[in-house]
Amino acid sequence: MYTIYADETNQVSIICPKCQLEQNIDTTKFKNTQDKLKGKCQCGEPYQYTIEFRNRYRKDVNIPGNYIILGRGEKEDIIIRELSLTGLQFESLKPHYIIEDDALEVTFKLDNHLRSKIRKLVKVIWIKDLIIGAHFIETKSYEHELGSYL
Question: What CA dihedral angle connects 123, 125, 129 and 132, to 10 degrees?
Fold first, then answer.
């Protein structure tokens, strides 16, 4: 299995691992999936891949924090698993009532020497069981802290 990277037009080139035939694919319909995809070349060779749509570097982390669902006030503890300048991925520590497009306030402290406190509004993009992916609603504040951390 390998990872391919979509460009700004959501196009990718997949090269068959056996015969090296190159296929161009529109990945628009896969944009909100985290699943492993399967394909088959014209030569009959099957292959698996994931599509990466990220524009920014994402750092694997293990940072405790919490969220509040805006408008409902539900608050729970989480572990931030991935962090970038434009968003994050976190794991809820217990079952949650978050749905796609929910707005959350996420708070955590970076594990840097300053222990910088970050409080960001995020929009939930995808959910897979206890794992949630979200984009920052406003990316300017904390850009210096996150930029130097990442």
Answer: -50
